[in-house]
Design brief:
Elements lengths: L1 H9 L4 E4 L14 E6 L15 E4 L3 E5 L2 E5 L14 E6 L8 E6 L3 E6 L4 E5 L14 E6 L8 E6 L3 E6 L3 E3 L5 E3 L12 E7 L14 E7 L8 E7 L2 E6 L4 E5 L8 E6 L6 E6 L3 E6 L3 E6 L13 E5 L4
Antiparallel strand pairs: 1-2, 3-4, 4-5, 5-6, 7-8, 8-9, 9-10, 11-12, 12-15, 13-14, 15-16, 17-18, 18-19, 19-20, 21-22, 22-23, 23-24
Amino acid sequence: MEESERDKEEEEEIWSWGAGTDGQLGTTRLEDEQLPQLLLDLPSSFFSVGPISLLACGGAHVLALTTVVTWGRGTSGQLGHGDMVSILKPKHVKSLESLVITHVSVGWSHSGFVSDTRCLFTCGDGSFGQLGHGDCNSHYSPLKVSYFDSKHVDQIACGMRHSLVLMKVYCYMSDLGSSIHNWDQSGAGLSGDTIFGFGSGKRGQLGVSMDNIISISLPQATVGLEGIEIVSIDANGDHSASLSGDGHLYTWGRGFGSTSDVHCPRRLPSSLCFIQVALGWNHILVLTGGGEVFMLGGNHHGVLGDPQKGSLVKHLCGF
């Protein structure tokens, strides 16, 4: 059995295609590919800690999570190697080798990493405050975001020039049988999970205020989701989204087509129960518990409205 499992791990492969002029395909060639290309000559340690658990694609760079491996455009420090150099093949991020990274995300020119100790690290372009360090500086190696030092970071989602962070709140029982919540830095008890936004906010993608906000460099809590269990977040372009524990989809940010921007999370009215969401540049894909995938926006420039009026993309049998 052990030998069979080892053989299966050794057969794991990475294929890439599309735009490649910044090395983001990992093929060692600076050219686009219209057909899937197998990445060859991967580092011997690439799968040393197990199979790939996540691949994240940014503006022109890629991050793979086994240990943390990046490649592609690095001109803003988004690869995390301590420089501004683009690389054509996967390379381990040495500064994170002593940490266990559980979640990652990449934006247009920045990257975020969450450790198993629930700390957040960011690097890359910070010109809009999207790294969360309280300034607009860029960083070429992952730097810990001190704002979340005493908070329990669960996920990071990087958009074009903004970032979202999901902070989970866990309840436990005291010896006296009463329910106790985690506490934030101010000592105030939290009644639900919290999403924080930072970076560019001109299209409402931070969700922190109904007022027009150009940008913020320190995390602020998103409004309108108080007391709601949040299971996942996503960001892309100037869009933001989250899924609640009861299967509701919330969206905010730039509207599609001629629709208005949404400055605070808005729940999509639907009887469907969603279990996964993926944001594109001009569309949303949502997966239901029944294995149906719906698209909103896309070529039809649909509104962030009722998914039952969207186009059914595919039925995933046995999902």
